Input
Amino acid sequence: MILTATKISKSFGEAPNQTYALREVSFAVDFGEMLYIVGPSGSGKTTLLSIISGILRPDDGDVVVKDTDIWKLGSDALAGFRLQTIGFVFQDYHLFPRLTTLENVAIPLILRREPWEKSLAEARKTLQIVGLAEKESLPPYKLSGGEQQRVAIARAIVAQPDLLIFDEPTASLDGETGRKIVAFVKEHILNERRAIIIVTHDSRIYEYATRIIRMEDGRIVPGAGADHEK
Ligand SMILES: Nc1ncnc2c1ncn2[C@@H]1O[C@H](COP(=O)(O)OP(=O)(O)OP(=O)(O)O)[C@@H](O)[C@H]1O
Output
């Protein structure tokens, strides 16, 4: 398994206005999987993504990524582990408008203190993978939405993370572009040494999942996909 989440609970606020966003959620993800997490608005998907990617601390439960219990790490070690192991793609891309497309892709390597020229060379190779080599010197806002999403994907994979996490990757794209992006990710980015987790509302891309788990009211709905439920 690349990721095992066990009995994750998280609430926000204080009684009597406390919201239970997650209630003892357990699941596991294997290498080579493209796992979708689906469910209605407010069911806890974003909270769960934030916890498994080391952004938000759970109230209870453990997240083990590649044998590391991430919430037992100190904050510096956790930040380092995330840079090394996890790539995150946001719905609205989060690209930096003042940097070129190439520099945007190089950021994770620069944060890891790789030399500037080497980082740009790696970023260039990665832009080739996503088919945007010829756009490298443009600022991202000169690109289409689908192209910006591909830049965000290139940035997420440039440091070769084992776990890739996408939050609503097609929400800002038209249907056809969204399908193309996800088909591309499955064909070119997924492999047996990594796993991809996608939170989505977009049923048009369900066909690309290797497994789908459904959340409702802070829990994983038992049945299809919820293999690690305890
Ligand atoms: N920072 C916060 N403070 C207070 N309540 C929060 C916070 N974040 C989430 N919640 C609550 O936790 C619950 C789960 O929210 P979450 O955003 O994880 O759901 P979601 O399934 O991702 O929804 P959506 O599909 O709309 O993004 C909701 O009731 C939400 O209002």
In short: The domain at 3-221 is CATH 3.40.50.300 (Rossmann fold). The beta strands are 3-12, 19-29, 34-38, 60-65, 68-69, 86-89, 163-167, 195-199, 211-216, 219-220.
